[in-house]
Design a protein that fits this description.
heterodimer, A: about 600 residues, mainly alpha, 11 strands, about 45% helix, globular, B: about 550 residues, alpha/beta, 9-stranded mixed beta sheet, two-stranded antiparallel ribbon, 14 helices, 21 strands, about 15% strand
Chain lengths: ~600, ~550
């Protein structure tokens, strides 16, 4: 059997309401978290929920992370807004676009912490473009640096500019030492305009701008490597977690006033930030990455057999974007269930609500498109339910489905289990090629014949192939079906129409040997297992913290707690997903070994 | 040649040593900026002529029979005179032995005609035949369809639209990245370590581990906007008046101050060893930026005009395509001759070519995306049995040969030092995504330049073993066993001055995957002699 990435959390999920292995969670509990590490250090985190973890008092190591390129882009945009320099957007945007996009071999691009010459060049180009833009416009110079910048830019004027500008750029008030360093750029050799430009270029290239620098918190009493993040760092954690951008003026104010360091003040700000439109928009980044929605590369509309399958659906025709509609459906549905009409996580797997307004997608589902107001239509009963059976997770490039691919996606992505990729060098030639078309065989029969009886294949395929066979209830376009049509690849002629079998032992839990009767039954088994919620918990925390929980610590404790909360049918995803900012690990930074 | 175009004298510095000096000096240097330009230049850096690697890639099918010479006369005959069946492919039979084994060669000057070397390699290449090397018979060993980095050694990028066995192969950097992070190739980085250019598709052919052997491998993005290319190469660079020393860029002082901030942070006790390593990497890259800003260029360097910003799209407007390529080529040439970079890749996803009506002499835009519908560049590749489609493909590729490759070669063939030109000291490689009709045998390879004398140019080298059976053929090509493409990669790496210890990984000889998994041995050649896989192509070197 494949190993599980959530082994530590799995045992407790059998008894969701009983408690946690190594941790116990008080659902909805509040109150200041006071943790007592083994060394006797104490971190007090107002606003953190009281998670009791057996002997665990430290989060995982929090490495120095750069702003992801997404965060950098958003931050530059917000900075220009705060400076009153939006007019520079057109000249800055090409420079921002030159910075390499976030990417990583695993999910969650924000974890990509690599830097390259192109990053550094891009950061400089952006800084220089903003500095040049301000320097080139007397009006903008006054807006950004104050009217006094026009008339000499004396030390007081420069200090006033720096106090405001560096607060925004560094996301915390500058120290006196920093102001002194920057004042040195106003050396009398440079003109006032050149001095302002120089300050902008240096500050926007600084590690305080480019990285999430968290070195200013309070260390635990006898543990220098465990830091309670300070209010400004906490403000940034909130804004970057949910907005992927810098704090707004209110967050800065709450950090400055000390309100963010109180439980009531923090909870109020968390609620404001989480319910802000920016959170509602940006949180789709999580769903998109977790559910691999960017991986689809398009329908092969040039293939005669695909054209035959998709006849009448207008796929690929001008004005029709079927996959875009499918992705939008997931975005709308998750937004609805998290924010607008909060639901439990399991509802994502079982809902029949259809939110699509696209006639093209609605037709694939056999449902009316939603009008944009009033009650939502429901997909036909007995055919499909939650997100696993929506187009974005079913679409395939070719006229034939690939049940191995579909099954592996469910195991890996939805259940968070590790499946090793096959090594072509250890397999006979052709092992990884799809089985050839056979007019007498369904896709399931062709694929299963390729691996059945071969112990080399069955060792892994036993874990996921049946999941794909069950999903054979949907064709490459995501349409429900009870028979499979076989088309001639060369000319698209219909060669056969065969009944399909969508039953089998899915073994969502290893001990479950009862066959599932179809995709809706598969949904129920997954809900019963709690593994979907556990995987969502693990994935969301990985996305938020930009690190994988490893070992037994506050990170794993948070994982376990979130899995329980998400699996609680009486708890909504709105409650659960905002809860990540209340875990003790959210308030702390563990410095790695020096 | 333009004898007035002389090589600039870049400022050279060992950035690592300098950073260590900064660390040791502590905060004092925050107040006393210490500029790279004040350091003496290493003697070797002052005298060695750098080598450059430029790779241009065209897409989808290549008409193998029309790419290679089909000349007969003067003692040459076609394969048809000796072979029957699909081996009678209408191309020139070579007979002079090459490097041992069943390989053959001929001087390109023997085969050139007024209309060019072949139907695709047109007349505008004729002035440079003595500096060209045409290679036939390079086979990708892994099972592969559409891909990004195959021609440079990475086969991990089969698209989901055309899944292939090679998609499961271990990610390795492409050889341009091996060069980019090799201290032998770049004793110091003169400006930009590398430049990747494309139109339409933003994914480049280049895969990198950023020089961290064993680290994650990432596909690099290409620049699609000429303005971005200009900024990468020349932002902050000013041309001094003739006779004056290179102008100092005032932003070097600012970068020095930024370096001070990074050094201050790395001394913070709340930075872990891993954090410090990350900051060190950043500081190294800032030093590279500092050199880019401060190296300046000599007065003899011709800085190009700053182009307008141009949006990228999937359109096929011929004026837009040609305008961008003209700008890109001028920028690449300026980047090379001003020594702002030494590695360039150019993904030719867009080109001009004829339209569907044979009587229409106008040039139309063509875009190679994954769209395989008829009429698109990719669609033409699927329509291999249609003579009109082949005519259009031939025209597209001839345009690339004459309007991109030949222009690039011509502009680089200006004196750099003594009698040698920038072209002589470079290796310009035109390769292709695949061979004919999505098949990866005999993938095209045209070289220009000798990489500073490492390659003996002016020849047509045929590594096809014509004594073998032809496994498969179509109107536009045939499959006969050639030589692993891996050996070409080794040749390039060695021509650029690298040794096996610089590029071999995990004890495996040579470079790139040798897996033929997925190929049916009864249908495709798989029985290559891998005992020499660590060696370059026989007979290619000078």
């Amino acid at each position: 059997m494949p190993t599980s990435r959530w082994t530590a959390a799995a045992p407790m999920l059998a008894a969701l309401s009983v408690g946690l292995t190594g941790c116990s969670a008080e659902l909805g509990g509040t109150g200041e978290s006071t943790l007592e590490p083994p060394g006797g250090s104490v971190i007090q985190s107002p606003g953190a929920i009281a998670l009791e973890c057996e002997g665990q008092s430290e989060p995982g190591v929090g490495p120095l992370m750069k702003l992801s390129t997404l965060q950098y882009r958003s931050t530059v945009a917000d900075l220009l807004t705060e400076l009153g320099a939006l007019v520079l957007t057109d000249s800055v945007e090409p420079m921002v676009s030159g910075i390499p996009a976030d990417s990583t071999g695993e999910i969650f691009k924000g974890r990509d912490n690599r830097i390259s010459a192109e990053h550094i060049q891009g950061y400089y180009n952006v800084a220089a473009a903003i500095g040049d833009g301000v320097a080139a416009s007397p009006e903008l110079l006054v807006t950004v640096a104050g009217a006094c910048a026009e008339s000499g830019f004396d030390a007081a004027c420069a200090r006033s500019f720096l106090e405001r500008f560096l607060l925004l750029a560094f996301r915390r008030p500058p120290t006196e030492e920093a102001i002194t360093e920057y004042l040195a750029l106003n050396d009398g050799v440079r003109t006032p305009t050149e001095a302002v430009r120089a300050m902008i270029v240096v500050a926007l290239s600084s590690p305080r701008f480019v990285y999430h620098v968290e070195v200013d918190g309070t260390a635990a009493t006898s543990n220098e490597s465990l830091l309670a993040v300070d209010p400004y760092e906490l403000a940034s954690r909130l804004s970057y977690t949910f907005w992927q951008s810098m704090p707004d003026a209110t967050l800065f104010e709450k950090a400055a006033s000390g309100e963010l360091a109180t439980e009531a003040g923090y909870v109020a700000e968390l609620e404001r930030v989480f319910n802000d439109e920016r959170s509602k928009t940006r949180i789709f980044d999580f769903w998109r990455e977790w559910l691999l929605l960017d991986k689809f590369t398009g329908f092969e509309t040039g293939r005669p057999a695909f054209q035959a399958l998709a006849e009448g659906e207008m796929i690929g025709e001008e004005g029709h974007d079927h996959y875009g509609d499918m992705v939008r459906e997931i975005e709308d549905l998750t937004r609805l269930f998290v924010f607008d009409q909060p639901k439990a996580a399991r509802d994502l797997l079982t809902t029949r609500v259809s939110v699509t307004t696209s006639p093209d997608l609605a037709r694939l589902y056999g449902v009316e498109p939603w009008s944009g107001s009033g009650p939502y239509p429901e997909v036909p009963e007995g055919e499909r339910a939650g997100i696993l059976q929506r187009g974005a997770l079913l679409a395939a490039n070719l006229e034939q489905t690939n049940p191995f691919h579909r099954g592996a996606v469910v195991r890996r992505t939805i259940l968070c289990e590790s499946l090793p990729s096959p090594d072509p060098n250890t397999l006979p030639p052709g092992s990884l090629d799809p089985p050839p078309l056979d007019v007498a065989s369904t896709t399931r029969q062709r694929f299963s014949a390729k691996v059945d009886g071969n112990p080399l294949c069955e060792r892994c395929h036993g874990a996921f192939s049946t999941l794909g066979y069950v999903m054979e209830a949907y064709d490459s376009l995501g349409r429900y079906r009870t028979t499979e049509r076989i088309f001639d690849e060369e000319n698209g002629a219909l060669l056969a129409e065969l009944p399909i079998d969508v039953t089998g032992v899915a073994a969502i839990q290893s001990a479950d040997e009862a066959p599932v009767t179809g995709p809706l039954d598969l949904n129920d088994r997954i809900v019963e297992s709690g593994r979907f919620e556990a995987c969502m918990a693990e994935s969301f925390l990985t996305y938020v913290m930009r690190r994988v929980a490893e070992g037994n610590n506050l990170d794993s404790c948070a994982n376990a707690d979130l899995a329980v909360v998400l699996a609680d049918p009486n708890s909504t995803m709105h409650t659960a997903l905002s809860r990540v900012a209340r875990y003790p690990s959210f308030f702390q930074r563990k410095v790695g070994p020096r | 040649m333009n004898p007035k175009a002389l090589r600039p004298a870049p400022v050279q510095i060992d950035g690592r040593s300098r950073r260590m000096f900064l660390k040791g000096a502590g905060g004092l240097l925050l107040a006393l900026p210490f500029l790279d330009s004040l350091l003496p230049q290493p003697a070797s850096a002052q005298t060695a002529i750098p080598k450059r690697f430029i790779c241009m890639k065209s897409f989808s099918t290549q008409l193998v029979k029309r790419w290679h010479p089909a000349f007969s006369g003067n003692g040459y005959q076609l394969h048809d005179a000796v072979y029957g069946g699909s081996k009678a492919d209408g191309t020139t039979l070579l007979t002079a032995p090459l490097g041992g084994g069943p390989y053959t060669q001929a001087p390109l000057s023997d085969l050139v005609t007024p209309s060019g070397l072949s139907a695709i390699l047109g007349a505008k290449l004729n002035p440079f035949v003595d500096k060209l090397t045409l290679i036939r018979g390079l086979d990708f060993l892994p099972t592969v369809n559409h891909n990004f980095g195959g021609l440079l050694g990475n086969f991990s990028s089969c698209t989901n639209a055309t899944p292939c066995t090679a998609d499961s192969l271990l990610d390795v950097p492409t050889i341009d990245q091996v060069l980019a992070y090799s201290p032998k190739f770049y004793p110091s980085v003169p400006g930009l370590r590398q430049l990747h250019i494309s139109q339409g598709v933003v994914d480049s052919m280049s895969y990198t581990d950023y020089g961290q052997v064993g680290g994650a491998v990432e596909q690099m993005k290409a620049r699609t906007n000429p303005r971005d290319v200009f900024n990468d190469l020349f932002a902050g660079v000013t041309l001094p008046d003739s006779g004056a020393p290179p102008a100092e860029n005032p932003d070097r002082l600012l970068v020095d101050k930024v370096v001070g901030e990074y050094n201050a942070l790395r001394r913070n006790t709340r930075m872990s060893a891993a954090d410090v390593q990350k900051l060190d990497q950043h500081i190294d890259l800032l030093h590279e930026l500092e050199m880019r800003l401060g190296a300046g260029v000599s007065a003899s360097c011709s800085l190009p005009a700053e182009p307008d910003s141009m949006d990228n799209d999937s359109g096929t407007d011929p004026t837009d395509i040609k305008t961008k390529w003209d700008l890109f080529i001028d920028l690449v040439v300026a980047g090379i001759t001003c020594d702002r970079t030494r590695i360039v890749t150019m993904g030719v996803h867009k080109a001009l070519g004829p339209g569907p009506d044979p009587s229409d002499s106008a040039l139309y835009g063509h875009y190679h995306s994954e769209d395989a519908s008829g009429g698109t560049w990719h669609g033409l590749a699927h329509d291999w049995s249609n003579e009109n489609a082949r005519r259009m493909l031939e025209g597209i590729n001839r345009w690339i040969a004459e309007e991109l490759f030949a222009k690039l070669v011509e502009k680089l063939d200006v004196v750099e030092s003594g009698d040698s030109t920038f072209l002589d000291n470079s290796l310009v490689y035109w390769g292709n995504e695949l061979g004919f009709n999505h098949i990866a045998y005999s993938v095209p390879c045209l070289l220009a330049g000798s990489a500073g004398g490492a390659i003996r140019t002016g020849r047509y080298l045929d590594y096809v073993d014509w004594s073998q059976n032809a496994y498969f053929s179509q109107e536009d090509g045939n499959v006969i066993r050639g030589i692993p493409h891996n050996r070409f990669l080794v040749s390039v790496l060695q021509a650029m001055g690298l040794s096996p210890e610089d590029y071999e990984r995990d004890g495996q000889a040579g470079y790139g995957s040798t897996s033929t998994a997925g190929k049916d041995p009864s249908a495709w050649p798989v029985n290559y002699d891998l005992s020499q896989i660590g060696q370059g192509l026989p007979g290619l070197g000078a």
